[in-house]
Amino acid sequence: MRRAAVAATTTTTRMAAEEMRRASASTATAEMPASPAPAQAGSRWARVWPRALRWIPTSTDRIIAAEKRLLTIVKTGYVQERVNIGSAPPGSKVRWFRSASDEPRFINTVTFDSKENAPTLVMVHGYGASQGFFFRNFDALASRFRVIAIDQLGWGGSSRPDFTCKSTEETEAWFIDSFEEWRKAKNLSNFILLGHSFGGYVAAKYALKHPEHVQQLILVGPAGFSSETEHSSEWLTKFRATWKGMLMNRLWESNFTPQRVIRGLGPWGPGLVQRYTSARFGTSSTGELLTDEESALMTDYMYHTLAAKASGELCLKYIFSFGAFARKPLLQWLASYTYLIMYNCSLIVIMHNYNN
Description:
CATH class of the domain at 61-239 and 325-352: Alpha Beta
Oligomer: single chain
Low-confidence stretches: 1-50, 340-346
Shape: globular
Strand content: 15-25%
C-alpha cells in the first residue's frame, strides 16, 4: 500500500507539474505581443529612435506642436484642422497627388474666432513660409474678419506629396487646384483672398481662374509681378558672366533650394535658422521686431517647417528664373484692374470682382 501511495503521489505530482508547465506556457503566449510585420517593425523603430540622434530632427507632428506653441502668443481663440482635399482633383493639369499611393492629402488650416456675420478673409503665405508667419497679424485682423489661414500644399503642416511638376503650367496647377479643392471642402465662396509674396502670386492666379469665388484680392508685397526683360539689370548681367554667377545659375536650374542646406546640416540646422531669424527679424534686446519669446518660438517653428520633406519648395525654378523674375508675370494678367496702394513700403493690389 505504501508503494501504491508513493506511486499515486508521484503520479499526482507529475500531473500537477505538467499542468503548471502548460499554464505557464499559455500565460507567456498570451502576454507576448504578436511579432510585427517587417514594415510595422520599421515604423515602430522609427518612432522609438531617439529624436536627438535623428539627422533631421523634425516631423509633421513636431511642426504642428511648434505651431501651437507659436500661436499661444495670439490672444484670439482658434480652431486648427487638417482639411481633407482628396487625392485626385478633377480636371487638373497635373496629378499633384501622384506618389507611392493615392492616399488623401490634407491642408493645415487655422480658423480664428470672429464676430457673427464678419466677412471671411483667407490668408496665403509666401515661399518657404507657412501660416504661422502671420502670428503678429491675427489678433488685429480677427477683430474685423473671420480669418482663415492655411499652409499651402507641400509646406508647413500640410501634406507633402512628391513634387512631380515639370513645367510652369503644371506648377501653377499644383497650388491653384489644391487650393480649389480646399475651398470646396470648406464650402467657401465670396471671400477676401490675401496673399503675401509668393502667396500673392498664387492668390492672383487663383482669382483669375476662379473669379466667381473671390470678392476682393489683396496682394501684399507680391512676387512675380514683372519679368527679367522688364527689369533689365546691368549688375545681374555682369554677375551671370562671372564663375560665381554661372555657379549660382546652375544651382538654381538644378532646383537647389535654401531648405536643402538646412537639411544637409542635420542637427546643426536649428542653429543656422536661429542666426537667420535673429538677423532678419531681430529681438527686443536689439530694439527691433520680435520679443525674445517670439524670436525663440519663431525660430523653432521656422526650423521644423523648413527641414521637413521637400515638396512645394521645388516650385522655385518653374515659377521664377534666376534673380527671382517671374516666367509668367502677373502684370500681363492684372493690368486691367484698378487699385494700386502703397502701404509701409509694400505694394498692395486690390482687385474687385465686379461680378459679385
